[in-house]
Design goal:
Layout (H helix, E strand, L loop, with lengths): L1 H32 L2 H22 L7 H17 L1 H7 L4 H30 L5 H54 L8 H20 L1 H12 L3 E7 L4 E6 L4 E5 L2 E5 L3 H17 L7 E6 L4 H6 L7 E5 L3 H9 L1 H6 L9 E4 L3 H5 L6 E7 L6 H4 L4 H7 L3 E10 L7 H13 L3 E9 L3 E9 L18 H7 L20 H10 L7
Parallel strand pairs: 5-6, 5-8, 6-7, 8-9
Antiparallel strand pairs: 1-2, 2-3, 3-4, 9-11, 10-11
Helix pairs in contact: 1-2, 1-3, 1-4, 1-5, 1-6, 2-5, 3-5, 3-6, 3-7, 4-6, 6-7, 16-18
């Protein structure tokens, strides 16, 4: 009975490890391929199907179930443990990433699917059938629950994706090694060799854990063009800063957010049309809000207006706002904007923050990342824009980044049409940012508005003439039919996913 209890504990560990490998693969897939919901869905589908294949294959194991169980456990440890390093190294080779992803998920799923039937056969002499089925499945499902909770809350923030897979590979290998003692009576030959093999697998995985940081740096150096001068993993994203001869660049989950060489074009176009439009009503801006924009660069532009007495920045990731306040190159670029005594930094989900009561703001700047997944897509829905109405007055002005009207044209018009569907009046406009090409924005208010015709002095890019030219869209950027983005359809994310398949070179 004691042996049965220990083997059931193995079921618990196996369930945790198997799901962790699948979650690691899904997370890496969403980083590289975008659309986290699609990637997790397909990874889960392949994993579960492969488990079914493994369960079917177990019928061909007629003898030495105990030996095969230990060997399968060691194979899962080796392949699952090194799955994240293998996939991470494939970052730079997009064409190879997808087949490698599904190959690894399929192999791990097949091996995990083999384990449970083999364990049930081993336990059948110790437990009644009804007890065997109920206990094995209970431990299996509880293990899956523990993994699903621990993965986002502890494992990724504390260990990172690479160390997570390696650590759980060690756990799998230890289960295999432990199995050589628990099942010693039924493993008749080669027991010592099997233990040596388990030891070698554990040593390899421990070595991987020790070298994880070095391996991550080596992989990212192949992915990014410049020299990496900062890298970290927060609860929400992978943050990398690279440097080259002309400046530095910020990447989130492998996606370029800005280059210090030309970011001023983007941030001047994002901020000043909204403020100037408010001022041209013969109003003086006193309160401003930025949603997103944790790098502090939009805040830098707002702080040019001395009349602003209170500025609030709401960004989900404290690691990003901390970087913008302490990382010297970024602090110099944003002119220490987040350290200004008038600025309040709030680390919260923007949608949840808007549910709370706030005094109305004169100017609101929305600087969210592109809607590449459903978590971001919710911030571009009719519900979100209706919630935004709670923090503005009829003469307030709102500016929003709206992706590229050239390369993601349907996304651009979907965002603007969605604002209109939420009872906003919106003016589309665009600016040229060399790092990104043509970039789109929307200027919105609760009542009809006109485009601003002036610009503040001292800007690098905008003057009065340039300001007016932003609102003249050429024909190839003009309106096209789109659906409205709602929480229950997330059409914008699908538009973005489809546009990601098209590169500027293919147009």
């Amino acid at each position: 009975m004691r042996q049965a209890s220990l083997l059931l504990l193995n079921v618990f560990v196996i369930a945790i490890c198997g799901l962790v490998y699948e979650l690691v693969a899904g997370a890496l897939a969403s980083y590289v391929l975008g659309d986290s919901v699609t990637q997790f869905s397909t990874c889960i589908g392949v994993y579960l199907s492969a488990m079914g294949l493994g369960a079917w294959l177990s019928r061909f194991v007629e003898n030495s179930a105990s030996r095969v169980f230990v060997e399968v456990e060691l194979a899962v440890a080796l392949i699952g443990g090194f799955s994240a390093p293998l996939l991470f190294s494939a970052f730079a080779y997009g064409a190879f990433f997808r087949p490698l992803l599904y190959l690894i998920v399929g192999i791990v799923g097949t091996l995990v699917g083999l384990e449970l039937p083999l364990l049930m056969r081993i336990l059948r002499d110790s437990l009644a059938f009804k007890d065997l089925i109920s206990r094995v499945l209970t431990f299996d499902y509880i293990g899956a629950l523990v993994a699903s909770i621990a993965f986002p809350l502890f494992l990724v923030p504390q260990l990172g994706l690479i160390r997570t897979s390696l650590v759980f590979g060690i756990a799998n290998a230890l289960v295999g090694l432990w199995g050589t003692w628990l099942l010693a009576d039924s493993i008749h030959r080669g027991l010592t060799l099997l233990r040596w093999r388990a030891g070698i697998v554990i040593v390899l995985l421990v070595g991987g854990v020790i070298q994880a940081d070095r391996f991550t740096q080596w992989s990212e150096e192949r992915l990014y063009d410049g020299q990496i001068i900062h890298s970290s993993t927060s609860n929400y994203q992978r943050i990398v800063v690279t440097s080259d001869q002309v400046g530095f660049q910020l990447y989130l989950n492998g996606n370029l957010q800005f280059s210090s060489v030309d970011e001023y074009r983007y941030h001047e176009a994002l901020v000043h049309p909204a403020v100037r439009s408010f001022i041209e009503q013969e109003r003086v801006p006193r309160r401003a809000l930025i949603l997103g924009g944790g790098d502090g660069l939009a805040m830098r532009e707002l702080l040019r207006y001395s009349s602003l007495e209170s500025l609030t920045l709401v960004d989900l990731d404290p690691a990003m706002t901390e970087l913008a306040s302490t990382f010297d190159p970024l602090v110099e670029l944003n002119q220490a904007s987040l350290l200004d005594p008038r600025v309040e930094v709030v680390n919260d989900d923007a949608m949840l923050w808007l549910e709370q009561p706030h005094e109305p703001f004169d100017v609101v700047i929305i600087d969210f990342p592109d809607p590449s997944n459903y978590a971001l897509g919710k911030l571009y829905t009719t519900r979100f824009f209706r919630m935004l109405s709670r923090v503005v007055t009829d003469d307030s002005r709102v500016a929003i980044q709206a992706t590229s009207p050239l390369f993601t044209r349907r996304c651009f018009w979907c965002i603007l049409r969605t604002m209109e569907a939420a009872d906003w009046h919106v003016l589309p406009y665009q600016a040229s940012v060399p790092s990104f090409g043509v970039w789109g924005f929307g200027l919105a208010a609760r009542e009809p508005l006109v485009a601003p015709s002036t610009a503040p002095d001292g800007l690098k890019h905008l003057d009065a003439d340039t300001m007016q030219s932003l609102f003249r869209l050429p024909t190839d950027l003009g309106p096209i039919p789109v659906e409205i983005q709602r929480l229950d359809n997330q059409i914008l994310v699908r538009y973005h996913d489809e546009a990601a398949m098209v590169t500027p070179e293919s147009l």
